Amino acid sequence: MCGRLWHNARAVGMPANDGTPRGWFSLITPVGGELQIEHCALTYDHASSAESMLRHGLPPEYRMTLSTGIWPSCDTLPYPEIRDRGVPLVPGAYLWRPVKPSRQRRRGQPIAAALLWPSKKPGARRLDARKFKDPDVTAGNEARAKVPLLALKTLWFNTGTLCNITCRNCYIESSPKNDRLVYLGVNDIQPYLDEISRDDLGTEEIGFTGGEPFMNPNIIELLKECLLRGFCVLVLTNAMKPIRRWSGPLIELKERYGHRLKIRVSLDHYAACRHEEERGVDTFAPTKDGLIWLTRNGFNIAVAGRAMWRRIKQLSAPDTRACLQSTIFRSMPTIRRSSSCSLRWTSASMCPRSRPDAGTSLGSRPPQ
What we know:
Number of domains: 2
Number of strands: 10
Structural class: alpha/beta
Distance between the termini: 58 Å
Strand content: 15-25%
CATH class of the largest domain: Alpha Beta
Oligomer: single chain
Helix content: 25-40%
Radius of gyration: 26 Å
CATH architecture of the largest domain: Alpha-Beta Barrel
CATH superfamily of the largest domain: Aldolase class I
């Protein structure tokens, strides 16, 4: 960046959280006006080092790390590091050349930086296109496995990729600028709703996600169409400013259809700093305000978070509820009393080592 390179060589005496006991180091060799960087693995007698730590009374968590290659805590790591925990690293090399900035950087302007390490593993082969030519027959001329559709309990619609915030790990990379999926309209969903009725698919619920569904100018008509047909409706939202634009129409829908309209609010952590690691700066307070508005107006709501932090995964259901009530909900007594609020902390496949039962429902189910 600006003619300078920052390179993380990792540590010789500490595994890289990749599930192997190897240490890591780098060799940097000047080549003309460029730098050749080789990232190398170091295999050593980790068992003897662990025994030495035991003799000297050092913490057992890091002693085990020398053998397992897994760090005792991921609390301070960014999401990509948490996601790749336990995935063995591959040694590699890169040739770096300094690039002069095109213009002088102004005070306060962030420095542009890029990840220079090759994204493809050495020896990786392209997928065989023949595998995807025929929906019924494999590349080996065998019949593909099929699972019959017995029922369609929930049908999901994506309302569009535009969102008022840019979450770090959004599955669809939604943002205020991403309009790759245009806004959904009532005419777009009607054929699918008709098909459910025609084929008697047994669908109970229609779900709406995004993007931020409440940025779609057709959202109220979409909800109304599904509710009129007798479906329960679930909307995923960050409960920030876009939902408040529709406060009047939403209250009317709630008064008419009651608990058949459910709002699920994404709250990644009960602490603002953790929530904003994922959602961005100054996102916690508006979401909290949105939750207050929803509960004060009697909406059927659910709060969904992630069990990607060690602290969350270790908490029992009663302990998690206590944390929520002592932090987020201490100024929201209506949530504590409301039977129409359910809380759910889920793993969301964020951490490869999370327990299968990491998603634990907290709170009573709303009356039907």
